[in-house]
Amino acid sequence: MASAPTSLPPTLSARVVIIGAGIVGANLADELVARGWNNITVVEQGPLDLPGGSTSHAPGLVFQTNPSKTMTLFAKYTVEKLLSLEKDGFSCFNQVGGLEVATTDERYEELKRKLGYATSWGIEARLLDAAGCAKLYPLLNEELVLGGLHIPSDGLALAARATQLLIERSREAGVTYLGSTPVTGIEQSSGRVSGVETPNGTIPADIVVSCAGFWGVEVGAMVGMSIPLLPLAHQYVKTTAVPELKGRNELPNGANLPILRHQDQDLYYREHGEQYGIGYYGHRPMPVVAASLGMTPQQVNEQNMPSRMAFTPEDFEPAWKASQELLPALRETEIADGFNGIFSFTPDGGTIVGQSPDVDGFYVAEAVWVTHSAGVARAVAELLTTGRSTIDLAECDVSRFEEVQFARTYVSETSQQNFVEIYDIIHPLAPRESPRNLRVSPFHARQRELGAFFLEAGGWERPFWYESNALLLDKLPSEWQPIERDSWSARYYSPIAAAEAWKTRTAVAMYDMTPLRRLEVSGPGAIDLLQKLTTGDVSKKPGAVTYTLLLNEQGGIRSDITVARLDEETFQVGANSPVDLVYLTREARRQRQEDPLRWVQIRDVTGGTCCVGLWGPLARDLVSTISDDNFSNDGLRYFRAKKATIGGVPVTAMRLSYVGELGWEIYTTADNGQRLWDVLWQAGQPFGVIAAGRTAFNALRLEKGYRAWGTDMTTEHDPYEAGVGFAVRAAKEAFVGKAALEGRSEDTASRRLRCLTVDDGRSVVLGKEPVFREGEPVGYVTSAAFGYTIGKPIAYAYLPSWVYEGDPMEIEYFGNWIRATVTREPVFDPEMRRLRG
Ligand SMILES: Cc1cc2nc3c(=O)[nH]c(=O)nc-3n(C[C@H](O)[C@H](O)[C@H](O)COP(=O)(O)OP(=O)(O)OC[C@H]3O[C@@H](n4cnc5c(N)ncnc54)[C@H](O)[C@@H]3O)c2cc1C
Q: Is the peptide bond before 228 cis (omega within 30 degrees of 0)?
């Protein structure tokens, strides 16, 4: 996550301007004053009592459970905060509970999976059968419903009221609010914000946070920042009075029944006193350009606000029919009022948080639902005041997107797709169908010839297995035979992966590692920069490769990287998300400001280069037939790099392997890529070389216990909890995060990432499932795979430190309990004979 402002240390007196007084902006002002910051101005283009953004008409349903731990924890905090926000004896949260019903078998299974998420992330939930649903919600058509998921702590946020109370509270604490004041520009000086322009003059600012909701694109443009967000309209109606609701609710907008979701028909419901409110996502996407709305602030009222467009009844027809089927009481009603309300969608459905990569001090907190509003605001307040959010922000970071994903055509298509799929049942591996083939490696044509099955991530096409290897299945020894999978874990999976794993362990395989990010870090200040930011010693002689960590000041893992010293002043860094590039670039900028002689250049060379991971016990035999360079154990030792020529292709070879076998990551430029593939392929034929995909790769890396950033470790974990303490060189004089690690070790960690193997040898889980000890939830799965070499499924899970090797655990998967045992790791080749051989 982007660090605190650079040239200006976080300080109580930093002048903060927040753009937008919706639920996010008001919450942020409140969170900042709660942390003692005292120089805050909130600028809102609409009237403060009803600004006219999405919050002004949000029905405020809060369903907390989400596949994302981060988003669920944001929602949980929002519920807690709004419950405690009271005036005149009424809080801003009506905790009526939430009920999601299933009308198809597939949805009922999905609700079981969701129950797992709720348990993993610490939300109490229970599955109900149809009768249980009807008992809880008597207006339901019981015959239509198969069952439901009940979350007692869900409910209704009184969003507009909460915003007013937060404005009131923070104003009393000294925050200045300027209503009916549009921000028209943002001033910058020496690469950081210096003020905010309005028709009434410029407001000086050290930090500007855009909480402008679906106007985010326009506000971002004021600093030249692309915001990958698309405003879309979404239909919401209120019915006439429902006889069955008469007398149930004292307040005109009150509610007693749980909030209700009927996702099989893209619908949700709440009470408004005697009326029903119905939200619908099943209609065509209706994109809007915020700048075109052309509303002046003076015109805002309940019926007339920029975020509220005219209702299009024809789009609502299927919803009305489906609603009357689910809730027969609605048959006696009509639609009293409806509108098409606007809010923000993004390419991956996530929120957008963080600092501009180019303009210091400019932050965004956009595409935030009411559900997550207080949680996001707290995270941004923590970021500003301490440089780090307690809850990991990687999934929300505005810098998580790849360059191609900022293109407006991409944002538009994928955000609309997200709208369409918002309530769909999506498999965690499901790729988007369009746009595809945005980024392909130089090996793509060859991979297609071999029948690669591609999944997409970050715009890259990545082979998961190759149909050409199906022939190997007949030759598989019995102990390598793939197991039958359940229908969910069998999606985006092929048993061919077993054959690819077998060949990797017994012969040699080629893996396309091109999509892994490569940064070239060079210049006279490169060594200082990397020494300061990493936990390892990267000052070794050229040719050394170091696996090391980037920590934040609190000791949380921002990323794990490999640093190869190519020459005195040039390093190749194998990194993770684009966030790493932004972080290194910002820190390089800071170093140069401090000392111009220690300049560093950071280039993302991923697209211009490519990489084959050539791994397996026969890898050395293969390479020695087409290279005169010394690839012997002494010629290129483990964790060393050197330039070489393979089959006439100039390469850089690094002796590393995520699959735990002898071999090298072989890099060359993109133009040489296809020839590199071809020479390896041809020379490999006598050795039985195969191309292998990510399904096998993931299984093999888990057998070796190699952690994946983002799932197995995040900023919420320190190196000892994540099991990568070996990458911390405590003797090093100074590095970011060192002070925070003082006194910590594996022994002091209260939870640790542990390896589980599944007792029945066949039940595969996928990740995020809750783990139980004697019936009590104690942790959650991060990564999982079938360990082909050991013939058992493997799951890594965060578990309390009082759990020991050999302890029996249970993993809940679709409501079933799978027995598993805490196992010594790695489960394959702990002596590293394969790698060092
Ligand atoms: C019909 C509908 C139903 C919804 N239902 C739910 C729900 O049930 N649960 C849920 O969690 N979410 C729901 N949402 C989404 C939710 O309403 C929004 O995500 C949320 O309100 C966004 O809050 P915000 O503060 O980011 O944006 P906003 O409330 O839009 O606030 C942004 C503010 O920034 C101001 N602004 C913009 N540009 C400028 C500028 N240049 N100068 C000054 N001020 C500026 C705007 O005037 C606005 O007041 C719904 C949305 C709609 C449309």
A: no
Question: Does pTM top 0.85 for this prediction?
Answer: yes
Could you give the C-alpha distances from 753 to 304, 652, 708, 740, 759, in angstroms and in order?
Answer: 53, 34, 12, 20, 19
**Longest pairwise C-alpha distance within the chain:** 88
CB 627 within 8 A of CB 647: yes
C-alpha span between 751 and 803 (Å, rounded): 9
| Catalytic residue selected from 57, 150, 234, 717 | 234
**DSSP H/E element including 592:** helix 578-594
Each residue of 787-817: pLDDT tens digit? Answer: 999 999 999 999 999 999 999 999 999 999 9
Cβ–ligand 1 contact at 79 (below 6 Å): no
Q: Is the dihedral of CA 138, 144, 148, 154 positive or negative?
A: negative
pLDDT at 574 over 70: yes
C-beta of residue 367 within 8 angstroms of C-beta of residue 346: yes
Q: Which of 834, 448, 505 is nearest to 655 (CA)?
A: 834
> Nearest 5°: phi and psi at 832?
65, 30
Q: Is 345 in the pocket of ligand 1 (CB under 6 A)?
A: no
Instruction: Name the DSSP letter for residue 299.
Output: G
CB-ligand 1 contact for 46 (6 Å cutoff): yes
CB-CB neighbours of 387 under 10 Å = 17
* pLDDT 10s digits, 183-196: 999 999 999 999 99
Q: Is the pLDDT of residue 294 over 90?
A: no
Half-sphere exposure of residue 515, counting CA atoms within 13 Å on the CB side?
Answer: 22
Mark whether 57 is an active-site residue. Answer: no
- 234 in active site: yes
Which pLDDT tens digit goes with each residue over 487-530?
A: 999 999 999 999 999 999 999 999 999 999 999 999 999 999 99
CB of 342 sitting under 6 A from ligand 1: yes
Whole-number Å distance between alpha carbons of 143 and 139: 12
